[in-house]
Each structure stands twice: as structure tokens, then as C-alpha cells.
Amino acid sequence: MADDRFHVYDTTLRDGAQQEGLNLSVADKLAVARHLDGLGVGFIEGGWPGANPKDTEFFRRAKTELDLKHAQLAAFGATRRAGMKAADDPLVAALRDSEAPVVTLVAKSHDRHVELALRTTLEENLAMIRDTVSHLRAEGRRVFLDAEHFFDGYKSNPAYALEVVRTAAEAGADVIALCDTNGGMLPDELAEIVAVAAETEARIGIHCHDDTGCAVANTLAAVQAGATHVQGCANGYGERSGNANLFTVIANLQLKRGFDLVPREALADMTRIAHAITEITNVTPNSHQPYVGLSAFTHKAGLHASAIKIDPSLYQHIDPAEVGNDMRMLVSDMAGRASVELKGREMGYELTSDQSRELVERVKELEAKGYTFEAADASFELLLRDTIGGERRRYFTVESWRTIVERRPTGEVVSEATVKLYAKGERIIATGEGNGPVNALDRAVRLALERLYPELAGLELVDFKVRILEGTHGTDAVTRVLITSSDASGEFATVGVAENIIEASWQALEEAVTYALLRAGREAE
Amino acid sequence: MADDRFHVYDTTLRDGAQQEGLNLSVADKLAVARHLDGLGVGFIEGGWPGANPKDTEFFRRAKTELDLKHAQLAAFGATRRAGMKAADDPLVAALRDSEAPVVTLVAKSHDRHVELALRTTLEENLAMIRDTVSHLRAEGRRVFLDAEHFFDGYKSNPAYALEVVRTAAEAGADVIALCDTNGGMLPDELAEIVAVAAETEARIGIHCHDDTGCAVANTLAAVQAGATHVQGCANGYGERSGNANLFTVIANLQLKRGFDLVPREALADMTRIAHAITEITNVTPNSHQPYVGLSAFTHKAGLHASAIKIDPSLYQHIDPAEVGNDMRMLVSDMAGRASVELKGREMGYELTSDQSRELVERVKELEAKGYTFEAADASFELLLRDTIGGERRRYFTVESWRTIVERRPTGEVVSEATVKLYAKGERIIATGEGNGPVNALDRAVRLALERLYPELAGLELVDFKVRILEGTHGTDAVTRVLITSSDASGEFATVGVAENIIEASWQALEEAVTYALLRAGREAE
């Protein structure tokens, strides 16, 4: 078991799962729990057994399928219903039967919620807390209490809110987590209220939501005011604007405030864990996410790049390796030689200063025409190789192509494309159909080449972005197409620019096929 | 001019544009500036004239094309180069020539950055600040100073960092904005350092990045410690993890701390403005965004539902209407009856309550399919007229169309389109050529109709935006096309959605032609 002096308590599987569009199967929940345990959190709240059959099953399967190294499982549930004994309440029994070593009980601490939502008396609510905590303690469980709406409750009736804290602690709850359930608090006021609650005998925890954009700061402020138990969710998942992002909280406390929360090597795996969890939840990763986002250590301005070469710490608040992330340089219209060299090194190429000067010139020239390489790493690598090695390696030569999109009198819309090309000495003609002209072109070119290069069967167009760039000084507008492709080694992006959207798409497609063959180790002609 | 006691300073167009994947044309920048002005911010930083040709053009066009009601434009730039006079520095001249009433100078305030990145002496850096500020003040500009890396600088050499603040203020800078450039600060320490800087004579501003997930809280902490000028970006755009989200900062200060920053009715339009800006930037909106996100007031927990009916304030930290959001907003902020009625009235239509209920239903249904009416007023007006008048008024009926794009063996790329339609009882076939398939389609349809409707000769396609919308639950991705057209009465926008990009473009083109004929006063068939 982890050190008990400070708790890192994850509620992704319960409160995080309240996020719109997030639906986790039992197998998903088990997989997320393994990742969280790998990070070294102390507690994993698995769900509400009894209230939710899926969660009941989670706790059942967890007994045999989860082999936790650091974390303990917590079962979430409510205090007993009004007017009955905790020992007789089937929902309380389900918590006990989950066999989770920790039970986290949610209780009302806001007088108006007791009266309007729970429809009982303030005194009965206290009795429900006292009885349920004592009962579960007698059953050998460790009990935490989530004091729901605590801050709004404190503002409505401070004496009652504090009475809830005291009652739970006296009945044997180990932690009273103060919940900013509606997420409306700002750090200063929150810290004052936490400090008052910390003056009781109770051990205080904190549970924040991000409705004011302050969930992380509120959590830190609570810790400074005396809380020794922090709750949050992986990647900041949760209802509305989400819960406190537990990854950000951990990194801030451990790297900037000297807390020893998770093993150093686990922290260095946090970026991978954060991304692995997005694969399970199927929620698009937030590239802006502090510490672990794809862009968290990405630099665009050329101004900075030259100084970064001298000393990266001048432009980074931490060493990204501490959280398993990486510095990335974007090649953009502010490109300077330093960023091109850095980018090349990132990709494993050492450029001479002549080569990097030439590459900068070519990038600038192409960017002036509308190309962008910041989001098209594969096109940049092809350009870099051209600069080092002379001409572009060609796996095929295109003679011509044609796309037709037609709306027939029946209203049906059909797309087809024909590509004529030479490869390995052969002239090949292929026609593809698709749900649009680019899709049809993509199919046609792969169909043409698949017999000679079977690995192209695994190449897939996964995203397609189009942007019309305004013309400058009398030139026509041009269209920029960014294509993301995926093959056995992962995703990569290519770019094409032309007046004609189909021509721009073709360029990006042609680069995607070339890049896929290059990294499959194919020899060019 | 807005009240000068507290500044809301937006840097979306400069620092926000550093975000990975965010590329704004000059027209985009002008459009974003109009939205920010509509929100009532005090200052809009437009870019770095002189360093970036696009930004030079922005300031040039802003003089005639921007009619700002609240905001003043600020030009961003650096202090003069070492070893020359400010009056002789062409980059300083470009700031003056931008004719922006405010110039914001970035200056180093971290001793190591002066020595390693700027490669000059600490004393020369102070001289550069003194000279550049004085020069621009003598030219009649209001000058703000961005003290770059101030907090890291203060920790490295507090005396020097404060000397930068004093020097700039003495030379005539109105505001010294302390920048947490690397974004690594936490609120407690940041507030202590702001309080020290606020003890100087200088007026203090704050500029935060979100690398610790605390940009908003840091901004609030700085205000509490004495800052009276806050910088941030729309939707939290910016490099790495983004800048402080200006919308969140404004809502927190105005709704929770009693500041009077923007007009109440503008705040109530903030959700719409936030979404409209995402349409321009073509960045996927963050549904979790505090206050203005699609999910910001969305409730999933069934537990809450009945209590919400009794008293919504029990489960919401603010009334979502204060920021123009909606508790049950599923599709867009437009999909409320009140806003539809308001929008209709704005266009000169009085809707009965049955009509507006029906229109809301149709908008919701179409938005669920991927349409957006926020940025497509002409399509909205056509939909509104359909709702009032029954069926769509038709000036022509399409039998079929076809586009061909071909790359010939010579390398030449040609596009043509053929449209077959009926108008005024005639069957008409016309073929157009263009620099792309949509351009060819546009020419073909106008060619077909011009003899019958000569005013279409003046209709021009001026902008074309494409967005691929992710599929949900087993459906394929769809393509949304927004077309901006211009005729004798000005610009208007239409929308089309389909799997096939050409089909989506056709829909938007067909609506554009219909709308142009409608407002030219033509009678439909």
C-alpha cells in the first residue's frame, strides 16, 4: 500500500464517466484502472455497485482480473435512505458486498439540498451519515465521505456544513472530501473555507470541477489550506467542464511543490498513460493538455528556436522528459535555421549548416506559396531528404489522372477517379470509386500500385483538412489540403497546395504514398 | 473609448495565433477583431507589423475596414535593436507606421535571457526600453510593455526584473504587463511576485499561459495582488497549452467578483461569439470550455434531473443565460426559441410562436446533421422563409450536374462542370471551366441562368471554407462547406453538408444563387 500521508484519489471511472459521450464497458474500466495503477495513484474509485449493474460487475471482475500494485479500489455510494437502518439498506449492502477495501459515501452538506432534493430533515441527514459510516466501519471497511455541495452549503449555512464534517469524522470516516459539486468556486474563497474545515479534527480532502477554469488551482489552494487528499480524473474528464485534471495536479505538486506522490519512473510514463487512456475512452486527446498534451512543449516562434538551442530551460517550465513528453519544434513561416536543425535532429538527421540554410530557403519559399509544414511532418521529412540527397526518390511516375463527380437525374451522387502511371517499368491504369473525389483518387492510386507494393493495402486515409488561403497582391486564392494517413507504423501527415482543390489533394496523396513506401524500406527506382 | 480603470486586453491575433494548426488570413483576423469588439474588450492586439507582412497588411486594412465600437487596436513589437537609436530602427518605424493608437513592446526582464538570447548587456537592455518607449511616446502613441519571462526573471534576479518595470514606467509606458512566458507559475508564488511589482509606481498587467493548468487562476491571483490589466486569448488559444482563456477570465471577474468589464448584453452574447470565432479559426470547439462550451451546463446524472426542475440554481454555478449559454443546449446556442425570434426580427421577420417553435426544430434537426447557421445567415434566412411560407421558393430546378477534374499528361490541370436545369419553363444546359471543380460549377450555374437573370453576372464567390465533421456512432464523416458570396448589396454566407465535398459545395452554391435572386427582388416560379 502506498504511503497514507497524502492521498491521490482517482474518480475517472465514476465521476469522469459522467462526461457527455464517454461510455466505458467493464473491460474498458479494468483497462483504465491498470493504467492508473501503473501511474501510482493511491485510490481508484471504480463506480457505484448496486446502483449500476455494470459497476457491480466491475467490482466482481476486479477481484480476479485486477492485480493492483499501488492502488486500492474504492466503491462509491450514498448514505442510507432516510428512516431505515444502514444494516437494512440494500444499497449499503451492495457497497459492502463489492469487497472494495474503501467505501466512499456521498452525503449532503448543503441544508437546502437536504430539504429540497433529499426531502428529509437536517437532523435525519446527520443520523444517516453517522449510521452508515459506523456500519461500514464495523464491517471492516475504510470509509471516506464526499461532502456534496460543501462550499455552496457552507455559504448557505456554515454551522450545518461543518456539523456534517464533524459527524462523519466522529463516526469513523477517515477523510472528509469537500466537494465543489457545481464547480463555481474561485481559489481564494475556496481556500478560506477549507482552512475553516481543517480546524476540525477531520482529515480533509478536496474534489473540484472546472466550471470556472480553476479546478487545478482550487485543488492546489485546498492543499495549501490543509487538505491531504486530492481527487481528480484522468485527462480532466467529467461532466460539464470536467473534473480537476489529476495528471496536472500530480505534476504540479510533485515537480513544483516537492510532494512525493508517485514513483519518479511512473511520472516519466505519464504522457504515454494519458494517451493510452484516450485510446480506451475514445475521446479525442486534448493536444493542449498541460504536461502531457501533444502541444504541451511545442514551440512555433522562430525567435525562440535559436535561444532554445542555447539552453532549453530558458523556454520550458520543466524538462518534458520528467513527464515522458518531448519538445517539438514546429516549422512555420517564422522558420529560422535553428528550428529546422532541431526538427531534423528530432527526426534523426544531422544537417550541415549549408544543408540547413538551403532547407530553410525551400521551406520559406514553399510556405510563401501556402504550404505549411508544422502539421505535415511527413512532407517535411521528404523535403529534408530531397535537400540532403538531391532529387526526390520516385516509386512511380504519374502520366495523368481524372476525377468525375456527378449528380444524376435520380439525385444520386457518384464519384470516380482514373489514374495512369508508370511503376517498375510498367504502365498501369486503375479506376476507383469513392464517396467523394479524393476518396476515389486515393483508391485508384492504391489499386494501381498494390500489386507491386502490397504494403499499400494497409495504408489508410484517416483525416482530410482543407483550407482556402487568401490570395495576396493580385494572385488567386489557393487551396491547402492536409491529409493524415495511417499505416502499420502509425499516423503521419502530408500537405498539398494548388489553386485546384483536387490537385492539392492529389499532391498530398502522392506524398503519403511515397512516404509510406519510404518508411516501409522500399527502394526507389 | 472604454473605461480605462481596468483593461481587458486580447492577444488572440498575435499570441493566440501561435497555436499549432491555427493559421489566420488577414480577412480572418479582421472578422475575429469584429467579434472581440462586439464582446466589448478594451484592446485588440492585431499582430507584429514590420516583422510579418500579413500583420502589416492587417493594420493597413483595419484603418478602412474595421469600425471598432469599444476596442482600440494595439500593434505588438520589440524594443529597438542593441546599439542603434529607436528612431533609426526600421522595426520600430513599422510599429509607428501601423498607426495603431497603442503600441505594446516586448522587452526582456530576465537577466539570462538578455545575455544568452538577446546577447547584450543588462544596461543596454534598459537603454533599449527607455529609448523605444520614449520615442513612441513622443510620436503620440500610448505604450504598454510586455515584460517577457518576468516571473522566471524575478526568481533569477529580482532587482533587475523590477528595474525593467521601473525603467519602462519612468520612460512613459502606461502598463507593464508581467508575462509568465513559459507558463510554469502557480497562483500563490505568482501573486507574491505581482504584489512586489505593484509596489513600484508602475501600473501592472498580467499575461499568463496554461502550462500548469492555472492560467485563469494565475490571472485572478494577479488581479487580487494589484494588476489592473489582464491579457488573454479567445477560447484559450495559444502556443503549447494555450494562453489564459479571456472568456473565462471575463466571466469569472464580472459574474463572481463584481467587475464591470463588458456590457451585460455583450456578455450574454459570449457563447455565440466564442463559437463564431471557432468557425473562423477552423479549430474544433472545446465542448468542455468553462461558461461557453457546449457541455458547460449539460447534465448527465439522472440523480440531478428532478432537483434541477425544483430549483436550477441548486445545480448550476451561474445562470447560463448570463453568458448566452443554455442548460439544455444540445446542438447550438441558436437553437432556443428566443434567439431564433430575435434573429428573425433582426432580419425583418415577425415570427408567431408556432413558427418559431417549428424553426427551432428544423434548425436542431439540420445542426444534428452537421449544418451550422451561426456563420451562414443567408441559409438561415432561406430556412426561415421556408418555415413561414411553406415550400422553398424555386427560381430553377436542377436535373443533374457533373464535374470533371483532369491532370493531363502535359501536367496541365483542367476543371469543367456541366449543369442541366429548368428555369422559366426552359431546359438549359451550360458548361463552365474553372480553376477547380467548385469554381467550374459556380460558373456553369451562373452561365445557365444569366440570360434569364442578368444580375447573377455580379454575383461572386469570395470565400470557401471546408470542415470535415467527425462521424458519430457508426455514421460516416460528413463535409461541411461554407461559401461566402458577394453581390451588389454586399457579402452573405451559405452552408452545405454532405459526405461528398462537391455535393456539399453544390448545396451551398445553390443556396447562394437562390439568395442572390431573392434579395434582388426576383419573383420565384
UniProtKB/TrEMBL annotation, chains A, B:
Tell me any Pfam family this protein matches. Answer: HCS_D2
Q: In which pathway does it act?
A: Amino-acid biosynthesis; L-isoleucine biosynthesis; 2-oxobutanoate from pyruvate: step 1/3
E.C. no? 2.3.3.21
Q: Which Gene3D superfamilies match?
A: 1.10.238.260, 3.30.160.270, Aldolase class I
Q: How would you classify this enzyme at the top EC level?
A: transferase
> Biological process (GO) annotations?
isoleucine biosynthetic process; L-leucine biosynthetic process
Question: What is catalyzed by this enzyme?
Answer: pyruvate + acetyl-CoA + H2O = (3R)-citramalate + CoA + H(+)
* Domain of life (superkingdom): Bacteria
The family annotation for this protein states: Belongs to the alpha-IPM synthase/homocitrate synthase family.
This protein is called: Citramalate synthase
Q: Which organism is it from?
A: Thermostaphylospora chromogena
